Amino acid sequence: MTITDMPSTTTWNAAYWNSRLSSRAQIMTASAIREILKITQEPDVISFAGGLPAPELFPLDAMKQAFTTVMEKYGPAALQYSTTEGHLPLREWIGRQSNIPPQNVQIMTGSQQGLDLLGKVLISEGDVVLVESPTYLGALQSFQPYLPHYVEMPTDEQGIDVDALETLLKTTPAKLLYAVPNFQNPTGRTLSLERRKRLVELTDRYGVMVIEDDPYGKLRFTGSELPSLYQIALERAGGDPDQVNVIYSSSFSKTLAPGLRDAWVQAAMPIIQKLIQAKQGADLHTPTLNQMMIAELLDDTLPRQIEIVKKAYGERAQQMLAQIGQHFPEGAQHTVPQGGMFLWVTLPEGVNTTALLSKAVERKVAYVPGSPFYALGGGENTLRLSYSNATPEQIERGMRALGETFTEALG
């Protein structure tokens, strides 16, 4: 009997396929935000769900010119494989912003890749990872396959409660703390300066590494700019980046364009060296052409673009806040962001925003329910709203529809 004559004994159904997956793959889940975005593809649905930059603000002419300049300057090298670390002029510019050498900067293909690779090189099964409550869903999704033990840190309107953090660190052997200090995703809150300083001091004292996720930091439309956790830690370390316990992650997605997928991590050399090795196994390097294009836009286009985006988002945030006051039911509470792309709404107890999403979509408006942002569950009566990718007319119509949905649910 030949191999082709042998009867088949395997039924390749869904259960069997699942049994062939690794244990790590079996615990992976789809992003709740990405699933919701599928609902909003219909052109008549107003979406406050995904944190999408406003496409009408993209610097198209500058992008076209940057492409031409790069092709003329670099020729075939712009289309060739490159170093894993990233385009040196881009890394040098990033390093100058913090007064660190370029070797402490690693270019990433989007900040989401940075989170995934940081999880890969830092988290072992069972490691205690401290996260805000609520926290960025994408970070939870990136870290989860490495099987951390999440411990939530209480938060309020000034961000992480550092008194509670100190109490926690006295009894909990934490390895890593993840935070979004500026205009936090999902709440839009900003960690106060006093708390930033104390968080850095506490984590340094207890030997805890910090991942500071800062994709929105340049998008401040009210108030004064605050130093990053990384800047505070670098000053405490006397300017030596290899003595800094904070790992800083940021991106050009929110300031220039997300489609280029250019971001970076700056950290102590032992971390950078492992990130280089991890990235070599992931994608070798971030696209050469994209990095070169961004390097051409840094000195002129980027600062102008940041001002354009800040003005637009500030106006849209104010309009959305006003609409909450007009249309949302009594008892609804919300954050007041000083920048970024999001605000957070807490409805009266008993309202389930996940269950109400389908009702909202029937009214042609979408949001992100709050519960997926809690590492340990909860938040059923909360939701995240993004104002960045909506026109004034859409904000007015959409917020009125949401108000009707929530008011109806409360009877």
From TrEMBL:
The keyword Transferase applies. Signal peptide: none annotated. Its cofactor is pyridoxal 5'-phosphate. GO terms for molecular function: transaminase activity. Residues 59-402 form the Aminotransferase class I/classII large domain. The keyword Repressor does not apply. It comes from the Bacteria. Pfam families: Aminotran_1_2. Keywords: Aminotransferase, Pyridoxal phosphate, Transferase. This is PLP-dependent aminotransferase family protein. It comes from Deinococcus rubellus. The lineage of its organism: Bacteria, Thermotogati, Deinococcota, Deinococci, Deinococcales.
